Amino acid sequence: MKTLNVNLGDRSYPIFIGQDLLDDAQLFSQFATSSASFIVTNTTVEPLYADRLEASLKANGQQVIRIVLPDGESFKTWETLQTIFTGLLESNADRKATIFALGGGVIGDMAGFAAASYMRGIKFVQIPTTLLSQVDSSVGGKTGINHPLGKNMIGAFYQPIAVIIDLKTLLTLPKRELAAGLAEVVKHGAIADHLFLDWIESNAAALNNYDLSCLEHVVVKSCEIKSAVVAQDEKESGVRAHLNFGHTFGHAIETGMGYGEWLHGEAVGCGMAIAAELSVQLGYLSLEDKNRLIRIIQTLHLPTKAPQWDTSKYLSYMSHDKKAESGQIKYIVLEELGQAKVQKVDDDLVISTLKVAGAI
Amino acid sequence: MKTLNVNLGDRSYPIFIGQDLLDDAQLFSQFATSSASFIVTNTTVEPLYADRLEASLKANGQQVIRIVLPDGESFKTWETLQTIFTGLLESNADRKATIFALGGGVIGDMAGFAAASYMRGIKFVQIPTTLLSQVDSSVGGKTGINHPLGKNMIGAFYQPIAVIIDLKTLLTLPKRELAAGLAEVVKHGAIADHLFLDWIESNAAALNNYDLSCLEHVVVKSCEIKSAVVAQDEKESGVRAHLNFGHTFGHAIETGMGYGEWLHGEAVGCGMAIAAELSVQLGYLSLEDKNRLIRIIQTLHLPTKAPQWDTSKYLSYMSHDKKAESGQIKYIVLEELGQAKVQKVDDDLVISTLKVAGAI
After folding, report:
1. What is the tens place of the pLDDT at every residue in B106-153?
2. Residue A71 annotated as binding site
3. What is the second-level CATH architecture of the domain B175-356?
4. Could you give the ipTM of this predicted complex?
5. For chain A, what are the domain ranges?
6. What backbone phi and psi angles, to 5 degrees, belong to B330?
7. Which residue of A138, A262, A313, B128 has the fewest C-beta atoms within 10 A of its own C-beta?
8. Residues making up the binding site of B for Zn(2+)
9. Beta-ladder partners of A16
């Protein structure tokens, strides 16, 4: 088992990464409280892993209550969140209760926001079971739900007390979701570590093939890169924005297609291809490096061809992005592979980029 | 104009108290941002004060958008909160937008929670227009909404960037709401300052009569007492619990009657009478001091006679209180007038207290 630490002063927490951690009752002993433990999970993950987690908690004398949600991004809504609150209240959950978020990013985001808001804040532990959530969403304290008018518009910065990553849960992940997680892994290399990007390129086949030691490497590296960024800028007033590389275009694609049509990671893969093109248009990235990045994305079975829409549709979905300020969008571009920066860009250049990328 | 400060490190903020502050465009200049200003108010307060606030903001070049909610505790729900989010999104509110909560405690709690959750947190200014919100709810950062199974169960600790109290707004307050606000004023004296309690006793008639200089005194004193407590214990792990004096019984009464039947302050007035009786039963408070406190509450036209219910109904509503831990309720009792403490109490003694108080 490897242990990393997210350094956030009195909100610091450990990330445990290893195999079969779900059965490690000793590890869970530190989360035994005077109150009850709530497993928040979904109908897909529950039959796979909830019994093992429950056994580890019960071995520590915990009363365990399950709250099982429907599976999918389309359920990342207030209504589903309300079922968590109702479950907590019906079981008389008090301020000392702990929520264990067992599942992917949607579960982590919703259970985290529920923990942030229930009685104005109770403890929660992230137990991400998808690659996307292990390398990205479980670390950093972003929680929330979607609003009919925008993705992740309602939420909180709320840190878990720990992240427990059992790598073997990746073995039950559909290929498409594995690829979606690898999109964020590529992003970490692209914005912060060109050597890691080289490594991903060399080990793409093993990654596509669920090689656990390769997956461990990308999870550890991703958590390291992301924690370092979050420790510098918890609430995204500066460098944390780099983590949004590919996301402005990606969110537009996700929203425009309707939530759930494309997986988040797929939209981000495609968004990175467009953002790389924008970096070329701005004169930063070489054509060769852009093509290399796009090739890596493709090798991991991710789309790089954006849906074709009207210019106005793209711009309108992009302007709803949370990163927009006074209608002005801040783009994350690459100065070179492994080095990102924030930049305002004229609409004209964005439009010509979308044209070159074949999106309009 | 008097200025107090709530000392919370990098979340510190000023409280401005004076007359006609709504028209003080100079005061509002510090809240002019690069983005839009949103006035969140209700259908009762809007026609009274929104124009003046809007003028002061516009004088500083702000674009102003109003979000007008239905009035009343029964609307302190997710559905109403959602209309705030929809209003913000439809006007393309970005992360630099500021919410101005213009109204009583319900508006402040909902607008504050909306500010805490919109894009994971935007700025907000409290402009409380009721006595209850001026002396209590606008200070300290508790925000939230009700859940069908419990009051204030969903929310956040989220501090405003300022509280602006225009005392003259109290002149349009119905007598019943004035009295409800005075309940929290009495509470501040009872838990923290017996000399202030003496002063309230001596000036009860003037307070009942909307005397602005007397009202200024109780607002300033209350904000001082509450800010000092909040500065010591922002998230209620210790001394902040003292502010809940009268609230465990009060919440049970409020919930049992159905939200909105009794005003919050009325339930707290009655709850303080029961909590004082409990303090007597525990051997702390003299019978004389208890009777004096009850007399003060009555002089301010607040109920001190609790509704009569089954024991089980009282205990069940009380056990849903947020202050309960593992089913054990922590009571706030008075060691003497001006001095509170937290105490666990056996159900037997609670039941005999409810009997003596005529509640069961």
Report:
1. 999 999 999 999 999 999 999 999 999 999 999 999 999 999 988 899
2. yes
3. Up-down Bundle (1.20)
4. 0.91
5. 2-172, 175-356
6. -100, 125
7. A313
8. 184, 247, 264
9. A3, A164
